[in-house]
Fold this protein.
Amino acid sequence: MKLQELVSDIQNDIIDTQGEKNVIVKGIASDSRKVSEGFIFIATRGVQSDGHDFIGKAIELGAKVIVYETEPADLTPGITYIKVKDSADAVGKIASAWFGHPSQQLNLVGVTGTNGKTTTATLLYKMFLQLGFGAGLLSTVCNYVNETEYPATHTTPDPISLNEFLAKMVESGCEYAFMEVSSHAVHQKRISGLQFKGGIFTNLTQDHLDYHKTMQEYLKAKKMFFDNLPATAFALTNVDDKNGLVMLQNTKAEKHTYSVKSLADFKARILEKHFDGTAIEINGRELEVQFVGVFNVYNLLAVYGAAVLLGQDIDKVLVVLSTLRSVSGRFETIRSNDGFTAIVDYAHTPDALTNVLDAIHDVLDGGGRVISVVGCGGNRDKTKRPIMAQEAVRLSDQVILTSDNPRFEEPQAIIDDMVAGLDPVQMKKTLCIVEREQAIKTAYTLAKSGDVILIAGKGHEDYQDVKGIKHHFDDREIVRSILGL
């Protein structure tokens, strides 16, 4: 591709250009290790490293064009240098141009919020497939181009990978694409250059303070997504969340709301709850859905609202909504022959844990005990650890604190951080078992007929991250093995 075509979307951000402008570019990279002959290398500042430090390496590997913010000490003859205001912003726009602006050829909807992103985006993807459309998904659990599956490494991929996926969707005949938009992705401008048809806000509760430092900064990152939506898009927000309307304050998009408690464009009412599903009413229409918990009703409302805003027939949307099943590792129910129920869920924030435990109690209605196996991830927001323990103890009859993904921390140290939030009375119904498999087995020995065991934190994950190595570990496999299923 000609260089001038490639940088056409960043013309207003270019401060200076040195060297030959009439260059043919053979590839793009923001990681110097992926540079080959004839590439353009965009130097960006990351959390762990600064791409400006690898400009020399990129040139050695064959880069012919360098996009940067901070000018290198020495300029290499024969290389084209382009100085920009914001190279992180430039990556997405250059990537979009390189792949033929794929987001402009799709109905792209982004889902952001602390909890519910994966479920909402995945169910929208599944719904549109069932409605007969080509559809793609970018999510924490897995990426899809129609029915073809690709492994996911990040909630929101880097801008080049992201545009490559969207281009695959276009090539495969997809009309719709649904993606999770993490706060990290917004802050790091990974979604720069994308054209969205709609944005959905689920909720905002404490998480990622290791990165954003304060809840206000976390809120600002989420809001930035809506601030940048075009007038041609819709913005659909959960009005029951205290930050729901904040998301709409500065958006140019068409504003819409959904709610379980208040007046809204899309309103749901819960009629009946059980472990196999929930009877609900949406905008006056009754249906049975195969999901448990108020939090899932919010997710389904967001899915319904987005589908209607994308122009789909209401009756068809309701029929599909009643057939959809839970996302892998989200309130996944496993029944035992002994009469108790095990639930595996990805809940790894205080609010998500509370939501799942509340959902269990709503169905149990005092008819059994709740035994919770809970851990916290290493090298992540430490401030939520004592809160997680407090919520687990408050809403459980017995709690077993254990290891999650310790990463580069000691599992016992993480558990100690959780225990720090508990008083002596709370500790009386709390066990600490570092080995996760042993913790799950202990919960099983404590359970009686009618009880529910919640195994929280890892959900769909089939590994445990220890000292940088991912060891195979699947909560669901462990449970089924214990139960002989």
